[in-house]
Amino acid sequence: VTVDVGDTVEWQWMTGFHSTTRQQGAETWDSGAVPSPHTFSHTFTHPGTYPYVCTVHVYYGMTGTVTVRPTTVTTTTTPATRPSTTSTTTPAAVSGACTSITTCEAALTAALPAASTAANGKERRVARRLQNLARRATHQLDRAVAASSTRRAHLVDKATRTLERLRSVAGNAAAQGTLVVPLDPIDADAGSLESLARSS
């Protein structure tokens, strides 16, 4: 689903136990696992791409993504000697938001931890896993950009899944204390890459 900053998304489930949960990055929420019927809502305050899961059914692939567009600001200026003018400006992108796939790939790589600076084996494994996922996503995105339009959608889907996996690994590592760099830049850069890939 795609919404604007300030919009509220409402989840409803009519059967079974479910949740809507995101526990990393700029936007977090958790409905808790509750029986149906149930409704949960969240108001989005930051632009970006936010994958979420049903914690009860995540292993069955029950996931989703909310893409939040930045708001557009309209200002009116009235000079004393001229008629009024109106301009529309899109605010500067949030930290981690990029304007091209190449720039986002470089920003994501720079935001990831280096295995050589890890203090222990767990931190080293996390750093290597994140670097491998970033390389795989970069390779997949490069192939998608060069592919014909019929093949591009499939390759973009693969890259998006890899980036979602990278964000999940980083979020889990942050929760366990094995991510030695800030999570938000990783989350923002990967989210920007997902958005750019889908719009390419």
**Class per helix and strand makeup:** alpha+beta
The N- to C-terminal Cα distance equals 18 Å
Number of strands: 11
List low-pLDDT spans.
85-96
Number of domains in the coordinates? 2
Choose one word for the global shape: globular
Task: Please work out how many helical segments DSSP would assign.
Answer: 4
Largest sheet: 3 strands, mixed
Instruction: Give the helix level as a range of percent.
Output: 40-55%
Q: Please trace the helix and strand order, writing H or E for each element.
A: EEEEEEEEEEEHHHH
Strand ordering within the main sheet: 1-9-8
Q: Report the mean per-residue pLDDT as an integer.
A: 82
Radius of gyration: 19 Å
Q: Beta-sheet strand percentage? A: 15-25%
Provide an overview of this structure.
- The chain has 200 residues and is an alpha+beta fold.
- The chain folds into 2 domains: 2-69, Cupredoxins -  blue copper proteins (Immunoglobulin-like); 101-199.
- The chain has helices at residues 101-111, 121-146, 149-176, 183-199; strands spanning 2-4, 8-13, 17-18, 21-22, 29-30, 34-35, 38-43, 48-53, 63-69, 73-77, 85-89.
- A 3-stranded mixed sheet has the order 1-9-8.
- Strand 10 and strand 11 (85-89) form a beta hairpin.
- The two termini are 18 Å apart.
- The relative contact order is 0.16.
- Residues 85-96 have low confidence and may be disordered.
